[in-house]
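Hi R.,

Here's the chain you asked about this morning:
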Amino acid sequence: DKKDLLVQLDTIQNRGQNLKTLFNLFKGAGFVQYVSSIYLRQLCDHANQRFHRMTRNQLSLKLNDNNDFEIMDYLNEGRSRSVKTLSGGQAFQVSLCLALALAESVQTNAKADKNFFFIDEGFGTQDADSINIVFETLQSLQKENRIVGIISHIEELKEKMPKSLQVTKDQEQGSVIQII
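And here is the predicted structure, written out as C-alpha cells:
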C-alpha cells in the first residue's frame, strides 16, 4: 500500500508543480514574458546566422536564463561573457544583426514584398576588414529583396556604394541633394 501511495503522491506533486507553473505564467505579465522570451530567442537565433559569419565563427549571441544577451566566445573555449565586453565594432555588428533579424520578422509578419532598412553611421568603429564584411552583408540584402540606406561620412564606404545621395548644406538654399 505504501508503494502505491508514494506513486500517487509523486503524481499529485508533479501535477501540483505543473499547476503552480501555469498559475505563475498567467499571473500578471507572466504569460506575456513567457511568449516574448520565445520570440526573443527566435530573434537571437536569426541574428546569429549573420553575426557568427560576420565574426568569422569567433562569436555568437545567446540569451541567458534572465533573457539578457551574452556572447559565446569560441576563441576562449566557448565561454560566455557579457555583451559589455564587446569592442565598439563588435557591438555595432551585433546590433546590425539584431536589427536585420527584427526587420526580417516584421517583413515576414507584414507579408511585405520589400522593406527598407537604414543604418545611420556606426562604421567609424570598424576596421577595414570589418567594413568589408559588413558591406558584403548589406550587399547580400539586395538579393533578399531589401533596400538598404546607409548614412555615412566614411569616404571608403561612399566609394563602394553603387548609388548615393549627397546632402550638403547651402547658406542660401538649405540642404542640397545630389544623386551620385
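One quick note: The CA atoms of residues 144 and 156 lie 25 Å apart.

Cheers,
M.
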